[in-house]
């Protein structure tokens, strides 16, 4: 398998975590999202992924895009160890956490949105950071309530073993800290993310451990 990745991409980070938890071998193909205006915009990469986003996973003849779809593909094709609970209600909870991050928080704070805020709308760095921190706080407030009220959280998002939800939570908390978002109001999120980030497989997927981090 080949993963088109960028070390700071939280979407690629999710897939790296799942690959590591599954113990799957893969080769990186780095798409630098800042160099020369962003290598994701090059025609040769658009030929692989017409969305111009990372990650892209190539598995044999299959070319897979969108991190949620890729993670679920890996769960379905490599079911051990399982990263989704068997119980349908628990499975829906894990997917709700994933969707809250992937659909409600991350899209407002990803690179192309932040570039639009500064380069097109003309906001300065402080205003960009205020935008980022606002939407993280809004999203994390809802996620904290969801995780707390569901009563399913153990050491990880669901119980005491990692699931796909942890693969989504860890990168989002990493990014929140990178942008110095206040996190004191979200103790469950922080506790679970820190526990998950310390898992050896998940730790191997962290941005500073990637070949392109230098």
From TrEMBL:
GO terms for cellular component: cytoplasm. Transmembrane segments: none annotated. Keywords: Isomerase. The keyword Lyase does not apply. It is an enzyme of class 5 (isomerase). Pfam families: GST_C_2 (PF13410), GST_N_3 (PF13417). It comes from the Bacteria. The keyword Isomerase applies. Its EC number is 5.2.1.2. PANTHER family: GLUTATHIONE S-TRANSFERASE YFCF, MALEYLACETOACETATE ISOMERASE. Belongs to the GST superfamily. Zeta family. This is Maleylacetoacetate isomerase. It comes from Rhodoplanes serenus. The lineage of its organism: Bacteria, Pseudomonadati, Pseudomonadota, Alphaproteobacteria, Hyphomicrobiales. The gene is maiA.
